[in-house]
Amino acid sequence: MSHRTYRGKLVYLTDGVGEEGREFFTVTVQPDGSRILRAHCEMDNDHLIRDVVYALDGDWQPEECFVRLTIGGKHQGSAVFRFTDTHVTCDALTADDGHLSQSFEVSERVPSFGAHPLCCDTWHSKKGDLVRGESIIGQLRNVALSSPLPNGGSGPSLSFVGVDVVYAGTEEITVPAGTFKTKHMINQSLRDGGTKPPVEIWAYSDDFIPVRGRWELLHQTYELVELSYTDPVAPKDSDAGSSWDRLADFDKTVG
Asked: What CATH number does domain 4-233 carry, 3.30.1490, 1.10.3470, 2.40.360, 1.10.287?
């Protein structure tokens, strides 16, 4: 098969405390650039586990996402989000609100979606970098979120926010996973008048792999400690056919 895959682990480091969480991620990229993120996030101080499966098309536009939250060992909520050129929808089951169905009409597809892994913040930066052109700032309007809380610990349900993505240059930085030449991006949320500290991102390669993040609001730094790549697996030269072929052959013999 011709897809490629990369995997990594980030640690969440709280000032004066050390590691208080971690994020494991796997990204599969198809030849047309479409990709799927599978992320598992653990936030020890909030007793929160987040599982995310998020699909983008080849233009880095959201297609669909599944989010499940566990808080204190109990199911907090789960939801499926879908994105088209005309609508954003959410179908959720949450501890606070029960079954929730949301549908918002939009004039164009939302530019990005925040499901709260650091990988999603990094992909806000990617989309901002794509739209900024010769400008320093890439303006993203109507970015969809699975939760408006800083730790993403509510819902999940739909909300929206504007984000200004500032390009701050290139930097070579060293983290436990190695030394990387990165783009330094600054994501400034416009919620509450843009008064909260921005999320800083250092992203590697055209895939915008998160190498380091910093959010003064939570007094946390995020660092990449593991990164690996899996080469595409060539199909075996076999006359056995596909699973569909084998099923059809079986149906013939039974019929």
From this structure: 2.40.360
